[in-house]
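User: Need the bound-state model for FE2/S2 (inorganic) cluster:
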Amino acid sequence: MAEHIEPAEFVFDAESEAKIVKTLAKYPQGKQASAVLPLLDFAQRQMGRATGSAWVPKIAMDVIAARLGMPPIRVYEVATFYFMFNMAPVGKYHLQLCTTTPCWLRGSDEVVAACRKATGIKGWKETSADGMFTMTEVECVGACVNAPILQVNDDFFEDMDAASTEALLAALRRGEYPKPGSVKGRQTSAPEGGPTTLTTLNFPSSTAGAE
Ligand code: FES
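Assistant: Bound-state model below.
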């Protein structure tokens, strides 16, 4: 991972503040530390809005610690435990590639190769020279049914292969944002080509008035 510069200041903006007030109201007095995860998320999203790179600087963690009345080390522990928080700047599009067994068996290697070819990124946690993409290898993201999965920022692109990966990254470069979900047009996790069971809602009449 390349060296990066940590900002000297971080102040929650109005959008984050509105969400913080709403979030803190959910917890009893004295239990505000429970809001550490959402506040980290708000900080990361704010950085994304402000700089185009969604990450959590150390100073933001210190601000959160002060806000929640907890020692900074406890915020660092939480932030570094969860993979969803980026501890260094990332590209505009954070490509999170699942390479766990189901995705691997369904072709994640070709998705990884296509991302490398399209972005010029050689390792993991690296950002392309144009700042557009960061590639991160992730463990199962819980969508194995439509493996392999390429997560872009918050969205899952499913049933990927080399061609669909190249097309997706090309669209992102053009400033387009294709619809997330199955690139094969699956209905949620139904078989390719459409559902094969429960294709009619004409249930037997005996179940209609069941007690
Ligand atoms: S293994 Fe990739 S989503 Fe589960």
